[in-house]
Amino acid sequence: MTNPHPTPPDATTPARPPRESDPTLPTPAAGPQPPPAPTDGAQTSQAPATDGAQLPQGPPAPAPAPAPADSLQLPQPPPAAADGARPPQGAPAPDRESRTGGPGGNPNPAEGRTLTTDPHPHPHPHPHQPPGLDAHLIVDRASFRLDITLTAAPGDVVALLGPNGAGKTTALRALAGLTPLTDGHLCLDGTSLDDTPPESRPVGVVFQDYLLFPHLTALDNVAFGPRCRGASKAEARSQAAAWLERMGLSAHAGVKPRRLSGGQAQRVALARALATRPRLLLLDEPLAALDARTRLEIRAQLRRRLAEFEAVSVLVTHDPLDAMVLADRLVVVEHGRVVQEGTPADIARHPRTDYIAQLVGLNLYRGQAAGHAVRLEAGPAITTTEELSGPVFVAFPPSAVTLFRDRPSGASARNLWRCEVAGLETRGDQIRADLTGELPLAADLTTVAAAELELYPGASVWATVKATQTHAYPA
Amino acid sequence: MTSLDKPGAATGPRTGRPRRRRVGTGGRRGVPLPLLLPGLLALAFLLLPLLALLVRAPWRSLPDQLTSTEVWQALQLSLVSATAATAVTLVLGVPLAWLLARTEFPGRGLVRALVTLPLVLPPVVGGVALLLALGRNGVIGQWLDSWFGITLPFTTTGVVVAEAFVAMPFLVISVEGTLRAADPRYEEAATTLGASRFTAFRRVTLPLIAPGIAAGSVLAWARALGEFGATITFAGNFPGRTQTMPLAVYLALQNDPEAAIALSLVLLVVSIAVLAGLRDRWMTTS
Asked: Is residue A187 part of a domain?
């Protein structure tokens, strides 16, 4: 991907204005950081729940965020990343496959292809010029406003996760320049793209249904980008052939898109986007058009290819599994705003909105903590093992809930609520019970247990959760 | 596609008769007379005149009729001018269709309506309007005449102008419809790959809408070939110069009906050939 051929998009990237000289400060272009963006991106994925004290506040309860945390949110050059925060680049994260090509090097190390790969590694970012993506996207629509901040270092894979209509695709289109920004800014590798038309941006897009040109062969689809960016016809085709070979599609080079399978089309689309050697790769629901079986396989392939890609990748998905498998960092968008940001593990452990809690399958409540007791906004109190004070979230999995038809006479009367069964649903070999009452919650129980309890919609039950199975963290 | 569909459609009801009786015979079962009779009448009404043309054709003298210089001149002129007019509508009409389909500008609805006006305008009126605009003393024509020495009325170029005027809406409407049906995101995809808007149009959109352009061209060509009113008004009726087939037919009918029939037969054959060329497009979709 870093290439020996100087192509126009690459040629523009190294030249960066010297203005962003201090890496610990927000970029001047960023202006005042919007307070709502949660800044727990600085949190490590291994961080235990007790890290809460230093956590900046999330959107629901704005409080003065500690100043250092603000700067941690920015992509850090390697020296600053030694503080335990997930390094945005350089040493690969433990949960990802190792990059044998070195930092940002050979996109396809295993195959050792030399045709388009660069012998020398990706130009290492200058310590005082934050490379990668720095965007504040504001798009106003008639009844909708998108206002999100996105930062990413080269090599990062960021997933925009959110429900339908949250504004993810609008954000992607704004990054590509297909939807104009109402306000905000967009910087890539230190170069402002605010006034750059989409055809001049070093941005590659894989569209949701791929949008392969139906009248062109797979090869000519991939050659389209290099051709438009000034390569001769023969050169563009040889580059395209190399990309198809890398994707394992050489045998299908002469085939029209309609004769490609879903997985093949996805790979051609990826090759077409990468063939322009973008510094920002955008993927809109990259796996949504695939059937379940292909999806599994393509997801693994795509994860590998994204890990190999040395510039910034941003993907949009509403599927939490896709997001967690493919991305290093999730940015959860709801109603046009970032509601949470962090590593997949962090978000799965500490959901901050009902939407995320549902995605990761947790019961989530907000409340006021005083020691081990948390007074929930939903009504009752809950006892937790963590000792906290102030606004907190409490989460526990549905499997941690135990149900009784009669009030249990045991000693543990804490975390005991009287509920009513609102609905029952089979999930694999489990039954998911939706409960209303003192505390609305979801409970998982085995089919046998459900039968013994004689559960039916409307049945009244007692639900209990052990304190050790709950998880409280500051809101 | 058609060759695959036809046998499938033909064998489908036969093989599936036991189970699909209701579906298979639904077309024939109980067709109401108030629909059947007028329908058949309409069919007869459309086909009988053509049959009459064949019945009364002077088959014996036909070879002589068709080899006469006048017929060849008219036929040649018709084909050349209709083709030239189609070329003009293509060069100007496709961009207009793109503007109408892909851009937003104030009064676009009105422009669309104006574009379709020649479709419903009596061609003679079109001819008069052309004369007033491009005639030797016309609004624009006087400048064309005095500055460039260009005279359009009563010339072969005038025939092309008149035919293009009448035929252009067919092409624009057809291409615009195809453009609207085509996914504009292909153009966006091309843009993200570095294509300017014109490159995206040329290399992506144009190939995608080629079938629509072809259909529109054939429509426009057929319309230009049959043009009578605007041509005779704007270009006159000079054999060899502006006398196209329809004019020749009309004129021949006054003094030599046999020649008129022969000329009509030629036009009929051309029309059937056009229809055959469009077979895949129209006859199988119904």
From this structure: yes
